[in-house]
Amino acid sequence: MAHSRFVIVGGGTAGWITAFILRDCIARAKLDASVAVVESSKIPTVGVGEATTAAFHVFLRHFGIDIFEFMRSCEATYKLGIRHQDWRRKGVTYYGPIDDPHQVIQAPPGAPSDYLNVYAVSVGKPVQDMHMFGPLLERKKAPWTTKADGSLLPLGPFLPAYHFDQSKVGKFLKAKSVGVEVVDNVLAGVERDGESGDVTALVFEDGEKLEGDFFIDATGFRKRLIVKELNAPWVSYQNELPVNRALPFWLPVEEGQEIANYTLAWAQEAGWMWQIPTQSRYGCGYVYSDQFSTPEQAHAEVERVLGRKIEVRDDIKFQIGRLENAWIGNVLAVGLSSSFLEPLESTSIHGTIVQMMMFGGNFLRDPRKMTQALRDDYNRRVGRQVDDFRTFVNTHYATERDDTPFWRDVRANRMHPETQERLARWRTEMPRMSHFPQYLFGLPHLETQLHYPVLDGLGLLDPAVAKAEMARDSKLRSFAKATHDSLVKEYKQAATKALSHAEFLKGVREQRWT
Question: Do 48 and 419 contact (CB within 8 A), yes or no?
Answer without folding.
Answer: no
